[in-house]
Amino acid sequence: MNYIVKTKIHFLWIIYYVFNIAIKCVIYTFAFNFLQHLFQFTDIMKYIFVSFIGLFLIIRQGLYWRNFSLKFNTDILTLREGGIFVREKKIHFKDIEGYNEKANILEKLFKLSSLTLKLEKSSNESNITLPYIRKKYINEIKSYITSETEYNLNEDYNYYYKLSFLQLLKGSMTSLNILVFFTFFYSIYENLNTIFNFDSMIQRVKRVYLESITNIIIGTIMLLFLILLFGILKNFIQFGSFKLIDDQNFIYTYWGVISRYDNAVDKREISAIKIHSTFWQKFFSINKISVISLNSKSKNIENNIVFPFIEKSKIKKILKELFGLNLYDKSYYRLTKHSTFTKLFRTSWSWLFILPTLLYFFKSYWLIFVILIALVLFSQITQAFLNKYYYTNDLLIYKQSGISFNEYIINFDNIEDLIVTQNLLQRIFGVCSVLIVIKDSPPKKIKLHDIYDKHAYDIAKIFRYHND
User: Fold this and answer.
1) What is the pLDDT of residues 140-166, one digit of tens each?
2) Residue 175 confidence (pLDDT)
3) How far apart, in whole angstroms, are the C-alpha atoms of residue 320 and residue 249?
4) Which 8-state DSSP code applies to residue 440?
5) pLDDT band per the 50, 70, 90 thresholds, residue 431
6) Backbone phi, then psi, for 124, in 5-degree steps?
7) How far, in Å, CA of 431 to CA of 99, rounded?
8) Is the pLDDT of residue 178 over 80?
9) How far apart are CA 249 and CA 150, in angstroms?
């Protein structure tokens, strides 16, 4: 067989992994410092053990780099890989159902890239990664995968979307994560405080902040502004230059500033569509659309994201243009008001055991526990009034709305298993719970609580029809 290209992993990959292993060894050393107090072993033993782990990891990665080779032509890709045990795989491009390309800042500097190939579900492996390969070879592989349907910005395409700065700004405002903000800056403070003493400066800032009501208001506004800037910067680095291109078989997405992502999702392998919005995103009518794909395996955002931030008013139009789903003028079923009792009963019994235990050991945190319980109860009650569902002979849609919002759009052909359950209280009120197992790797479970029993049995009947 004649191959057009023969290549190996770039040597930079080894340097990158040695650096990572060195960081891991430092972490292991700190972990052994804690274990040293429990098991009473010497510093020499600790350093020998950490050195052995580091050396083992370096040798293993070195052997993998040495043994790795990649050959391909227009039809087939041959991969040789392994550390101690080497194996060879032959993969036909027609058996590859999508890809995910990622290039960190180091790879971008040296014109390299890493490519994850998504294989058809009948294959023994669902994903294969080609790390630190020259960008020109990665582009060739991608062109062979999508040779029948490849589009670029100068050609015709079915759908083209680009993330605007306003959407990025709205997304940043609705993802204000104070905990992440303070964790980030606290980690910087902890590292720099060993060199520079910031304690006296922090005390001065604290005194000025608490000096008057005016200072507290101005300081709080400045803090919120900094958190907003932090969110904008974080989202810009992650989703900057986001664009989506759609053709007959694939959805292509490109995004990222420091780490660059290039993803292709095979439409035929999409088992469900998920629409999500957090508590704050609901106020700004902003949603995130992602897909559950048969061969995604990893649940990382780069494999599943379709729209990071999109206005609620545009979702139905997008679903029609991108997935061929017409969800206009649909009449959804709502839960019976009696489901409030079944939902509260489902979780209340656990508080009888958990709450007294927590209050006994953490008495000073009682207010936090009360707030958490109030949030859970609020979510349960609102779900009874806001949750709704819709189904036909082909499609099932479930909208779960409480503090946050989740919507699942599932084709019955992509349901692997379906289980209907009914406890005593549900039987009294004429409702059931339906557990849906979506085809995924691993399978994704979605539970529809407290829907009308007639509808539950109808859904089960449709599922059996599609699986006969």
Assistant:
1) 888 888 764 444 444 455 667 888 888
2) 64
3) 15
4) -
5) very high
6) -65, -30
7) 43
8) no
9) 10
| DSSP 8-class letter at 446 | E
What ranges do the domains of the chain cover? Answer: 5-145, 156-320, 330-467
In CATH terms, the fold of domain 330-467 is PH-domain like (2.30.29)
DSSP string, 304-370: HEEEEEEEGGGHHHHHHHHH----TT--PEEPPTTHHHHHHHHHHHHHHHHHHHHHHH-GGGHHHHH
For residue 442, cis peptide bond before it (omega within 30 degrees of 0): yes
What is the four-CA torsion angle of 305, 311, 313, 315, rounded to 10 degrees? -10
Question: What is the second-level CATH architecture of the domain 5-145?
Answer: Roll (2.30)
Helix (H, G, I), strand (E, B) or coil at 74: coil
What is the C-alpha radius of gyration for the chain, rounded to an integer number of angstroms?
A: 27
Long-range contacts, 148-153 (Cβ 8 Å, 24+): 148/249, 149/247, 149/248, 149/249, 149/250, 150/247, 151/245, 151/247, 151/252, 153/245
Tens digits of per-residue pLDDT, 306-356?
898 999 999 999 999 888 898 888 899 999 888 888 877 777 766 667 777
> 172 Cβ partners below 8 Å, 6+ apart?
228, 231, 232, 234, 235
Q: What are phi and psi of 458, to 5 degrees?
A: -65, -45
Short-list 259, 294, 296, 290, CA closest to 277: 290
pLDDT at 398 > cutoff 90: yes
pLDDT given at position 234 = 81
Amino acid identity, residue 25? C
pTM of the entire structure? 0.75
Beta-strand ranges (E) seen in 73-194 are: 76-81, 87-92, 96-103, 112-119, 127-134, 159-162
pLDDT band at 88 (very low <50, low <70, confident <90, very high): confident
330-467 and 5-145 share a CATH fold: yes
Contact 422, 458 (CB under 8 A): no
